[in-house]
Amino acid sequence: MVKPVDPNRLVLADKVFYSSGSYSAYASPWCTMITSRLAIGSDMIDTIDLLPSSFPNDVRIVSKVPLADPNSYGCGVYGYNFVAYGNYDGGSPKITVTPRKSQLRSTGGR
Protein backbone atom coordinates (compact mmCIF):
# COMPACT_ATOMS: atom_id res chain seq x y z
CA MET A 1 0.00 0.00 0.00
CA VAL A 2 1.08 3.56 -0.72
CA LYS A 3 1.22 6.05 2.15
CA PRO A 4 -1.66 8.55 1.81
CA VAL A 5 -1.45 12.28 2.49
CA ASP A 6 -4.26 12.01 5.07
CA PRO A 7 -3.14 9.48 7.73
CA ASN A 8 -6.76 8.28 8.13
CA ARG A 9 -7.01 7.25 4.46
CA LEU A 10 -5.77 4.07 2.81
CA VAL A 11 -4.35 4.07 -0.68
CA LEU A 12 -4.67 0.69 -2.35
CA ALA A 13 -2.18 0.01 -5.11
CA ASP A 14 -2.68 -2.31 -8.09
CA LYS A 15 -3.80 -5.84 -7.19
CA VAL A 16 -4.66 -4.96 -3.56
CA PHE A 17 -8.09 -6.18 -2.44
CA TYR A 18 -9.92 -4.28 0.32
CA SER A 19 -13.16 -5.27 2.04
CA SER A 20 -15.37 -3.76 4.70
CA GLY A 21 -18.82 -5.08 5.52
CA SER A 22 -20.50 -6.18 2.27
CA TYR A 23 -18.40 -3.87 0.07
CA SER A 24 -15.06 -4.40 -1.61
CA ALA A 25 -12.57 -2.48 -3.75
CA TYR A 26 -9.89 -3.65 -6.15
CA ALA A 27 -7.64 -2.11 -8.81
CA SER A 28 -6.87 -4.60 -11.56
CA PRO A 29 -4.29 -3.74 -14.22
CA TRP A 30 -5.52 -6.36 -16.72
CA CYS A 31 -3.36 -5.29 -19.63
CA THR A 32 -0.12 -5.84 -17.70
CA MET A 33 -1.15 -9.47 -17.25
CA ILE A 34 -1.62 -9.90 -21.01
CA THR A 35 1.50 -8.23 -22.35
CA SER A 36 5.04 -7.86 -21.07
CA ARG A 37 5.34 -4.53 -22.93
CA LEU A 38 3.57 -2.76 -20.04
CA ALA A 39 4.72 -2.66 -16.42
CA ILE A 40 2.86 -1.80 -13.24
CA GLY A 41 4.36 1.29 -11.63
CA SER A 42 5.77 2.85 -14.78
CA ASP A 43 3.40 2.33 -17.73
CA MET A 44 0.28 1.74 -15.66
CA ILE A 45 -0.61 2.90 -12.17
CA ASP A 46 -4.02 2.43 -10.53
CA THR A 47 -4.83 3.52 -7.00
CA ILE A 48 -7.97 3.49 -4.92
CA ASP A 49 -7.90 6.05 -2.11
CA LEU A 50 -10.47 5.43 0.64
CA LEU A 51 -11.43 6.38 4.16
CA PRO A 52 -12.17 3.13 6.07
CA SER A 53 -14.62 4.83 8.44
CA SER A 54 -16.91 5.92 5.58
CA PHE A 55 -16.22 3.22 2.95
CA PRO A 56 -17.75 2.82 0.34
CA ASN A 57 -18.45 6.57 0.39
CA ASP A 58 -15.66 9.08 -0.33
CA VAL A 59 -13.60 6.81 -2.60
CA ARG A 60 -11.18 8.19 -5.20
CA ILE A 61 -9.90 6.11 -8.10
CA VAL A 62 -6.89 7.36 -10.06
CA SER A 63 -5.44 5.66 -13.14
CA LYS A 64 -2.41 6.33 -15.32
CA VAL A 65 -2.38 4.45 -18.62
CA PRO A 66 -0.68 4.93 -22.00
CA LEU A 67 -2.32 7.28 -24.51
CA ALA A 68 -2.42 4.53 -27.16
CA ASP A 69 -5.53 2.42 -27.73
CA PRO A 70 -5.32 -0.64 -25.44
CA ASN A 71 -6.04 -2.84 -28.48
CA SER A 72 -2.57 -1.93 -29.74
CA TYR A 73 -1.28 -3.99 -26.79
CA GLY A 74 -3.77 -6.81 -27.46
CA CYS A 75 -5.79 -6.30 -24.31
CA GLY A 76 -8.98 -4.40 -25.22
CA VAL A 77 -9.03 -2.54 -21.89
CA TYR A 78 -6.17 -1.38 -19.70
CA GLY A 79 -7.71 -2.32 -16.41
CA TYR A 80 -10.75 -2.72 -14.27
CA ASN A 81 -11.00 -0.76 -11.04
CA PHE A 82 -14.06 -1.24 -8.90
CA VAL A 83 -15.92 -0.59 -5.70
CA ALA A 84 -18.64 -3.20 -5.41
CA TYR A 85 -21.44 -4.47 -3.21
CA GLY A 86 -21.52 -8.21 -2.75
CA ASN A 87 -19.39 -11.01 -4.09
CA TYR A 88 -17.37 -10.51 -7.26
CA ASP A 89 -15.21 -12.99 -9.18
CA GLY A 90 -13.68 -14.78 -6.22
CA GLY A 91 -13.29 -11.64 -4.12
CA SER A 92 -15.70 -12.00 -1.23
CA PRO A 93 -16.30 -9.10 1.15
CA LYS A 94 -15.94 -9.61 4.89
CA ILE A 95 -19.70 -10.14 5.10
CA THR A 96 -20.73 -12.45 2.28
CA VAL A 97 -23.86 -11.41 0.42
CA THR A 98 -26.26 -14.26 -0.25
CA PRO A 99 -27.84 -13.90 -3.69
CA ARG A 100 -31.61 -13.83 -3.62
CA LYS A 101 -33.97 -14.90 -6.32
CA SER A 102 -36.35 -12.28 -7.62
CA GLN A 103 -39.41 -12.47 -9.83
CA LEU A 104 -39.37 -10.32 -12.95
CA ARG A 105 -42.63 -8.70 -13.97
CA SER A 106 -43.58 -7.38 -17.34
CA THR A 107 -44.31 -3.64 -17.39
CA GLY A 108 -46.22 -3.77 -20.65
CA GLY A 109 -43.23 -3.72 -23.00
CA ARG A 110 -43.26 -0.05 -23.87
Q: What can you tell me about this protein's structure?
A:
By secondary structure, the chain is mainly beta. It has one helix at 30-34, and strands at residues 10-12, 17-20, 23-28, 45-50, 60-64, 80-85. The strands form 2 sheets. Strands 1-4-5 form a 3-stranded antiparallel beta sheet, with no helix packed on it. The radius of gyration is 17 Å and the shape is globular. 16% of the residues are buried. The mean pLDDT is 83.
Briefly summarize what is shown.
The chain is mainly β. It is built from one helix and six strands; from the N terminus they run βββαβββ.
Beginning-to-end CA distance, first to last residue: 49 Å
**pLDDT below 50 for ≥5 consecutive residues: which ranges?**
none
Please count the helical segments.
1
Task: Report the principal-axis shape.
Answer: globular
Q: What is the N-to-C succession of helices and strands? A: EEEHEEE
Strand order of the largest sheet: 1-4-5
Structural class label: mainly beta
Radius of gyration: 17 Å
Give the total of beta strands. 6
Percentage of residues in helical conformation: under 10%
Assembly type of the chains comes to single chain
- Tell me what portion of residues adopts beta-strand conformation: 25-35%
Mean pLDDT equals 83
Characterize the main sheet.
3 strands, antiparallel
